[in-house]
Amino acid sequence: MAQNSVIVYYSWVGNTELAAKEIAALTGFDIQKIQEVKERKFGTMMTSAMGAVFGLKSSIKPLDFTLQGYDNVFLGVQIWGGKTTPAINSYLAKASFKNKKVWLFVTMADNKTPQKFIDKLTSKIEKKGGKVMDALSITTKWDPKENVVVSADEIKSAVKNWIENIKI
Ligand SMILES: Cc1cc2nc3c(=O)[nH]c(=O)nc-3n(C[C@H](O)[C@H](O)[C@H](O)COP(=O)(O)O)c2cc1C
What we know:
Elements: E1 5-9, H1 15-27, E2 30-33, H2 45-53, E3 72-78, H3 86-94, E4 101-108, H4 115-127, E5 131-139, H5 152-165
Parallel strand pairs: 1-2, 1-3, 3-4, 4-5
The chain binds flavin mononucleotide.
Flavin mononucleotide is lined by residues 11-17, 45, 48-49, 78-82, 107-110, 140, 142.
């Protein structure tokens, strides 16, 4: 496995984080978490979804946006209101994907491959010089009242199956 790879992800509820950590456990890749400056309170589902729908960006904490030293970037995102989240929108604006191979993993409640979402995200990354190699989408069970991960085993096995079958 290529060691010049990094996993970068955002996660509010924890599903994408679980997937990211599983990739790290299977590969030993470095891992970086995108964090919002202002903690997003649970119970703000509508405002959060609307922020995504309108394509807003939120302030995120500093990270090494140059991605220097890495050839492969495993980018973990989730779907809100059919779109990328404000934290991911900020990351996409700041990160340099030039000459990077980008592997997407997407978590969502829906159970069909979110092709339009993947195509849009791919085009944003490719405009910044990255090449999207593959995209895994994982359906997560979602309980909006609890805001907890309820399908950990399914997420882990989807990730394992993906990592074992891609050629990095
Ligand atoms: C504000 C909000 C909006 C969401 N909108 C969608 C959606 O439009 N389509 C979908 O399939 N899932 C939607 N979901 C479900 C999330 O994509 C899913 O729970 C995902 O795994 C969350 O990632 P996280 O646990 O890493 O935060 C939404 C969840 C939240 C919190």
